[in-house]
Design goal:
The protein is α+β, with helices and mostly antiparallel strands. It is built from eleven helices and nine strands. Helices cover 43% and strands 14% of the residues.
Length: 329
Amino acid sequence: MATDMIPPANADAFLDKAGWGGARIEPLAGDASFRRYFRVHAGERRAVLMDAPPPHEDPRPFIAVAEWLHARGFAAPKLHAIDLDQGLLLIEDFGDERMRETADANPDTLVPLYSAAIDVLIALHRHPAGAWRVYDRAELQREVGLLIEWYCPAVGLSVDADGYRAAWDEVLHHALSDTPVTVLRDYHAENLMLVGPERSLGLLDFQDALAGHPAYDLVSLLQDARRDVEPSIEEAMLARYTAANGAGAAFLDAYHVLGAQRNSKIIGIFTRLWRRDGKPRYAALCPRVWAYLERDLSHPVLAPVARWFDANIPAELRGDPMLVRGGEA
């Protein structure tokens, strides 16, 4: 077993106190953060152990969002046991059937699955935002800055940072909402589980929720960094959402601004995961994210940002930062 997937030393004592003494613990997954997950078996019972070790991780936001979602009828994992001091949670096990693998294995499921995911967002956005931090202009700017902080140096580029911020300042007002909703922020096919005989969508990885624009989670789903989403699916699902909510041209402008914003951020984060954290598999996802970003930049609402990219990042230097030869990468 890889060292990073050995259960924490205090896991047995935590499980014993929670009524799961003697349970078998198996590695399940890690992610891009310090969080790790293990499957716990005790007879016929099964659960997931989340290891969110302090000070790197704080499970309280996960708990708060899970409880908020439960109270409104959404399928977040139930919380069986909590130890905040140790950063350990025992939560409901949604099984192994993710939307990602189901969609990849059977193209006939694409429209039904994405339609169901859109319908969850339609229902979620009928509720006022929870008491989360606001996804404001300053946060959006901080996030897009990750591209010039990490990607550009990795491919040997020295760019106009002030011009970058100024270009985004011209368009980010489109990404702000007077009636914010709960934005889960990582709403995509690898975080949506098919649960139970009814195969309803279970939600994961929502601990970073903010109060922001409803278009953000549509971008997460329809411009998925981890799997290709065909433009025809994206278009059909946007139409499904806008028909239900009566959203018009302003919503679509927000969608593309947030698409460019999120994809710029992700390129920066994935490069950082390679350069700083030794996780090169994320850098290899960047070409897909660049393709989404360039699609968003083609929309007129993003003209100032598109001009900056054309002037500062040549097309041949947009890709996997481990392979692009603009400098030291």
